[in-house]
């Protein structure tokens, strides 16, 4: 349920009837979410580190692409500006 109640009876949660209610807050069965225990600090340190590296790589690529994108945008705007001004 929503009150932080964790269902840990012998009957698997899926096997409970659909009219099961949280004994603490009376939330219906559909309101329950699978319990995900907080990840221990070093439970998967290598995975976390890999993910962080990937993220850094992504950020770097964006960081490199961004100035190019801005430069192209400015050139395009300038070209458009001169084009529009030269028409009249």
TrEMBL record:
<feature type="transmembrane region" description="Helical">
    <location>
        <begin position="65"/>
        <end position="84"/>
    </location>
</feature>
<keyword id="KW-0472">Membrane</keyword>
<keyword id="KW-0812">Transmembrane</keyword>
<keyword id="KW-0813">Transport</keyword>
<dbReference type="InterPro" id="IPR024935">
    <property type="entry name" value="Rubredoxin_dom"/>
</dbReference>
<feature type="domain" description="Rubredoxin-like">
    <location>
        <begin position="4"/>
        <end position="35"/>
    </location>
</feature>
<keyword id="KW-0479">Metal-binding</keyword>
<keyword id="KW-1133">Transmembrane helix</keyword>
<keyword id="KW-0249">Electron transport</keyword>
<dbReference type="InterPro" id="IPR024934">
    <property type="entry name" value="Rubredoxin-like_dom"/>
</dbReference>
<dbReference type="GO" id="GO:0005506">
    <property type="term" value="F:iron ion binding"/>
</dbReference>
<dbReference type="Pfam" id="PF00301">
    <property type="entry name" value="Rubredoxin"/>
</dbReference>
<protein>
    <recommendedName>
        <fullName>Rubredoxin-like domain-containing protein</fullName>
    </recommendedName>
</protein>
<keyword id="KW-0408">Iron</keyword>
């Amino acid at each position: 349920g929503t009150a932080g109640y964790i269902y840990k009876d012998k009957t698997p949660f899926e096997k409970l009837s659909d009219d099961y209610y949280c004994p603490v807050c009376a939330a219906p069965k559909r309101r329950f979410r699978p319990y995900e225990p907080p990840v221990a600090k070093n439970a998967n340190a290598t995975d976390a580190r890999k993910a962080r590296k990937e993220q850094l790589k992504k950020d770097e690529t964006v960081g490199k692409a961004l100035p190019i994108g801005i430069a192209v945008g400015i050139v395009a705007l300038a070209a458009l500006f001169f084009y529009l001004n030269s028409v009249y």
